[in-house]
Structure formats: structure tokens, C-alpha cells
Amino acid sequence: MTGIRRLAQHLDISIGTVSRALNGRPDVNEETRRRVLQAATELGYVPNQSGRSLRQGTTNIIGFMMQTGTEITGQGDTFFMSVFDGIQTVFARHRLDLVALLCSSSEDPDDYLKRVVARGFADGLILSATQRHDPRFEFLAKRKIPFVTLGRSLTDVGQPWLDLDFEGMAQISIDRLVARGHRRIAVTRPHDDVNLGHLFVDQSARALAGHGLALDPELIFSSLPNEAGGYQVARQLLAMTDRPTAILLVNETIAIGFYRGLSEAGVKPGRDIAIIGRQSPQSHFLSPSLTGFTLSRRDLGIALAEALLATMPAFSHLYPDADPRKVWSEDLIEGESDAHTLPA
Amino acid sequence: MTGIRRLAQHLDISIGTVSRALNGRPDVNEETRRRVLQAATELGYVPNQSGRSLRQGTTNIIGFMMQTGTEITGQGDTFFMSVFDGIQTVFARHRLDLVALLCSSSEDPDDYLKRVVARGFADGLILSATQRHDPRFEFLAKRKIPFVTLGRSLTDVGQPWLDLDFEGMAQISIDRLVARGHRRIAVTRPHDDVNLGHLFVDQSARALAGHGLALDPELIFSSLPNEAGGYQVARQLLAMTDRPTAILLVNETIAIGFYRGLSEAGVKPGRDIAIIGRQSPQSHFLSPSLTGFTLSRRDLGIALAEALLATMPAFSHLYPDADPRKVWSEDLIEGESDAHTLPA
DNA sequence: CTGACCACCGTAAACGTTTACGGTACTATG
DNA sequence: CATAGTACCGTAAACGTTTACGGTGGTCAG
Q: Per CATH, the architecture of A61-164+297-328 is what?
């Protein structure tokens, strides 16, 4: 005798009543419910998830899909850890288990997702590393699997998304640098077809145009979104005959490598070149200090979780006014790296 | 009509036969098996995991438990990503799904593990961030849940483990530095009760003793295992009146912060102080280049996976000679950071 | 007193598998 | 021809839940 049956036998009531009592159904005497609950903790009863899943067709699992290898995630991975933390706190409230689904860099993300879905693994998914055209969205929409994405995409199937305000960052950065006299301003972007690259570069160009300036195509640097990428960008930039006087770094981690590349050539941030980037736990150890954007990754995670729950029928009533699509502005932390000013 | 029943009806055979055919049982005609397999792909049939789990009492899931926050994992998290990658490749061969269970830094790892186990989540577990005394081991052993740990512990319940050869690294480093004339050699260790700290410091002391030297307790620096920790160590070290002439860095990530702290004071690695650390993707961007240990994290992951499978009854026959307990030696990559030599 | 209503509870089916058991038809052996 | 053996397949139980449905006993209004 195991499971709910054991509990029922012990209390000398039926398993139906036990189940109802545990699941908070109204049609059960409060006194019996109390007894059931007590016996459950006493006997250490915990419902079998397989039985429950089989019956209800739901797994109580939410998957957060990421990709291994910093070359792909590009945020130094600690970014996602913090976001994950925020998501976890929300789901824990609803007894939903959050797991990380790490797609190996050697596997196609689309195939990986198909496997996960075919297995009926999760009730909902959170997708990151969204591509500019992302076939995963259509796939999930067709299967009617609730999901939310971290990052916008041109592929729109009506799913909720959250994203960082890359346009805003570009605009603020450009305005700031132009005001300091810069005319030749470089920007970086990830090497692959991830959407944020387009958003960032395009808005940088528009912002420059607003000042009557153009974005020189030569000054758009594609890089791996990690330290190595930043280093490469520095080398390329230093090798140019007509160097830019300022640069925008779109990724969090590349500043480390970029600084290194500069210092090898004796070029000092804030004195010889102006830099605006993104803050990270690592960037605090850069010198001169980095001027860069920052936000609470944990809050972002919380918002992601709530956006997903809002689309899941079983929970949507709890989050009636969750923002289905929102851009998160980052705050600019002023450092020394963009102090470089040109004469008017 | 759904699932296996639909398939059976479509083929006009019984569900039992279908199941046997799909699961590779011997007592089914090869011709019918072929037909079943073909129909399965045609109709896109994929067995329901809940039904299967309920019947077999197994989930086909392996969990890799880590902790969020670099303050805890200490390896810059990219370490675990690579290990994860290796594990994944092995499990994929056996149709086991690997998920990452990320314990939030705000939750007690023991409680988290209990929740996971109570839910019957996984058939096996891989534990990281092993403490010197780790109650999780006894808990899992009592429940007879197969698990393997990345990292040794004083708590021994007979579980398999893999670990890095911290003793070997300490020995080699000390020998090397002593040969270069160093007498006052500092070591770092994580601030908490994680086992590797003890292994590393103790062996360093023994190695020094082998040369007739003692490890000055003042030269044992506890630090957070991240960039900030390395920076703090540098500050403390520089503030000492009787500075060490060499130092061993036990973590991968702290070199970044340590270098920064030194450079602020104009102290140059390899010229003013000798440093031996651990290589990481980030450390390649340090200058002067870091002398440090390295190993294939992916191979480590593969070995971890095989060690776990060897303890699982359903798979143990496939890995008869998997090493249940093994220390992985790292290779020393010679850089410039330990060039500093003292006169005899 | 009768009927309706209500609060609570028990019964049993259903979810989709796997697998022990037994049955059938055919082959080989004496 | 009788028997044993074999190859293959169908039947049905079991895994642990949830939940629709119906039943029981009580209360209360008419």
C-alpha cells in the first residue's frame, strides 16, 4: 500500500476525499481536511508527480532554455544565472519547478527544442538567445505551448516578450558622446543574426543622423560576445588609419577584452578614447572605471516569470495586468571611460 | 484514441505488441517491428513520459545541481557550462535528459535537494559545490538515489566522485616556486567550508615542509571565489609589511581581480611577484600571461556522466570499468606570471 | 410528514504505459 | 500421429493520481 492509498487507509477514509482535501477542493469538511494535512506531513506523503501528470496532462515544470558556451549566450553566463534566480522566486510561489534546459553548442537549438516538446517535458518555456528569425516561436505556437522570450524577434506569433532597451541605450550613448564632441563613433554587435545587434546598430545610426552625422560602416564591429571578441575589436580598431574617437560596446563581457587590447597599445580609456558599455560583475574591476548601463537582472527574471504565468490558463487570473511585452530601460552608471572630450 | 492505442489500432495489432516492438524486446517478429517503427514515425508517435514513468518508476531525467551566483559556484559559471556540455553528450546516447537544477542563492541547498527528491524528479543526480561536510550525501544515500559528486568531501557514503587534483597542483606549484628561490609563498582558498580549500592549503603546507619551509598562517588568504575576491586579496597582500614574493591562486576567476589590484599599485606579475593560478577563458586576456593549470572541462563532464551511469543498475553493465573515484590532473601552462626569480 | 436542498464523502473510471501470463499456430522430434 | 518446443502475439493488471457522478444523512421550509 503506497501513496495516497496508504494515507487514506491510515485515516480510514477514501482516497477521493484525501485527494480533494490535499488539493484544496471546497467540498470537504474542514476538520477532515485538517486531519488529512496532518497525516500527510506525519507520514511524509508527497504526491507522485507521474501519476498526477498522467491524469492532468501537466508536468508542473517550467523550462528555461539557454545555450551552453559563452560564444552563444554572450552574457558571460552570470547574466542568466541572475535572471534565473528571479524567475525561480516567482515560480516557487506556485509550486512550479524551474529547470534549466541547456542546449549544447554542438546541437541545433531547434532540434533540441523539438525533443523537449515531444517529450512533453514542460508546461511552459522561457526562451533566450532569440534569433532575428526564430523558427522556435512558430513551432511552439503551433503546439500551443505557453512561452515567453527574453529578447524580441522579427518572428511574431503573438507571444509575450521582454527585452532590454537597446534602442534607448544607443540613443543615450550617442547623444552623450556627440555632446562631447565625438564625430567618429564606433559600435559593436554580435557576430550572428541575433536581433539585438540590429536594434542596437540601427538605432545608433538613427541617433547619429539626428545630429547630422552618419554611421561609417567601417565602424561597425562584429564580435564574439565574450572577452575574446572584445580583444579582437580592440586590435582591429587600433589597426585602423582613421580611428574612431569613441565606441559603444553592446555586450557585457567584451569590455574586459577590449580594455586589454587597448592597454597593450598604451591606449587609455577615457583619455585616448571614449567608451560606453554595459556594467557587469566583472566590469567593476576595470580601470579606468567603465561608463555603462545596468539593470536588475533579478527583477527582469521576475517579470519574465509573471509574463509567462499570465499566458498560462491555470495562472492567468493571478496576473491580470502583467505586461505582455515590455522593454526594460537600463540606468547609466557614469564612470571614467567616456571622459575623453574633443574640442568643438 | 491516443498514444500507443492509436498506433495499435492503425496497425491492427495489440498495444502490447506495439510496446514490445518499440522497446526492442526480442519476442516480436522483425517484420512487425519494422511496421511498428515505420508507423510510429509516420504518425509522429512519441511515448508519453508520464505513463512510462508511472509504470516503471523512473523518469529518464538526470539532474545536475548547481548553485546560482558566482559567489557560490566560484568558477565564473562558464566552468560548469563546459562540464555540462560533456555530461550531456554522454546521456544523450542513452536517451536520458539532462537538466540543470539551479539552487537559488537565497535557498538552502539541502532543502532544495529534498524538494527535488521528494518530487521524484530525477533518476540520478550530479552534485557540485560539495561542502567539506555535506549532508546531502547521506540524504541521497538513504533514499538510494544514484549520484556522483564533482568534488570530494569528508562525508563518505560510498558514492563515486571526481575531483581536480588540488594536491598535485599545490605540490607542483610549490616545488616550482621554491626552485626559483621563493621562501614566502602565499596561497588562497575559498572563504567557505568547501573541501578544495582544505586540500589545497594543506598540501601546500606539506609541500613547503618538504623543502624545510613553513606556511605562514598570515599568508593564507580567504577570498570570495570571483573577481572581487581576487581584488581583495591583492589589496590585503599589498598592505602587508612583509609581503610574500609569490602566490598560488586556487580559483579560476580570481586572477582577473588580483591582476587589477596589483596594477593599481604598479606591481607587475612576473617581475615583482610570482603567480601561479588556473587557466580560464578569461585568463587568456591577462597580461603578463598567467602561468596556470588547465584541463578539458568537457572530458571531465564525460567522466562524471559515466561514473554516474556505472552506479545505475539499468546502465551499469555498459560501464563496467568506469572509474568510481578519480582525481583529474591538470596541465601546467607556462606563462610569464611566475617568471619572478629570487637570488639564492 | 414530505420534499428539496445541502454538505460531505465513496466509487470507479480514466490518463498512457509496461509486462507477466497464457494462448495459438507452427515446426521438429520421436 | 502424438508430443514437445518455439515464435509470436493478445489480454489484462498495475503504476498513483484526479474527478465526474451518485449516494447518504441531515436540515429546513412548506
A: 3-Layer(aba) Sandwich (3.40)
Protein-contacted bases of chain D (C-beta within 7 A):
7-12, 14-20
Domain A3-47 superfamily per CATH: lambda repressor-like DNA-binding domains (1.10.260.40)
Q: How far apart are CA A61 and CA B203, in angstroms?
A: 44
Least confident piece of the model among A69-83, A236-250, B261-275, B327-341? A69-83
Chain A residues with CB under 8 Å of B70 CB are: 78, 81, 281
Which CATH superfamily hosts domain B166-294?
Answer: Response regulator (3.40.50.2300)
* Cβ under 8 Å to B: A residues 248-267: 256-257, 260, 263-264
At residue B126, φ and ψ (nearest 5 deg) are -120, 125
* A257: nearest CB among B48, B263, B285: B285
CA B236 to CA B221: how far, in whole Å? 9
| Minimum distance, in Å, between the CA of residue A230 and any CA atom of chain B | 10
Report whether pLDDT(B69) > 70. no
Closest CA to B36 of B24, B52, B50: B24
Residue whose cell numbers read 495562472: A315
**Shortest Cα distance from B57 to chain A (angstroms)?**
8
Task: Please tell me the predicted confidence (pLDDT) of residue A107.
Answer: 87
Q: Kindly state whether A84 is in contact with chain B, defined as any CB-CB distance less than 8 angstroms.
A: yes
Question: Which CATH number does A166-295 carry?
Answer: 3.40.50.2300
Residue type, B164: L
What are the mean pLDDT values of chain A's consecutive 10-residue runs (344 residues total)? Answer: 93 96 95 96 95 95 82 54 90 92 88 92 93 94 95 94 96 98 96 87 98 97 89 96 97 90 94 96 86 94 96 91 90 97 86
**Alpha-carbon distance B237 to B218, whole Å?**
10
**In chain B, where the domains are located:** 3-47, 61-164+297-328, 166-294
CB proximity A226–strand D (7 Å threshold): no
CA/C1' separation B17–D7 (Å) = 13
Round and report the angstrom distance from CA (B105) to C1' (C7): 46
| B15-22 vs B3-11: helix crossing angle, rounded to 10 | 100
* Closest CA of chain B from A227, distance in Å: 6
Which of chain A's residues 45-64 bind strand D, using a 7 Å CB cutoff? Answer: 45, 47-48, 50-52, 54-56
Q: Do domains B3-47 and B166-294 have the same CATH topology?
A: no
Task: Report the share of chain B in percent with pLDDT over 70.
Answer: 97
CA of A146 and C1' of D21: distance in angstroms?
33
Please provide the DSSP assignment of B131-171 as one string. BSS-HHHHHHHHTT--EEEES--S--SS--EEEE-HHHHHH
Least confident interval from A181-185, A250-254, B276-280, B299-303: A250-254
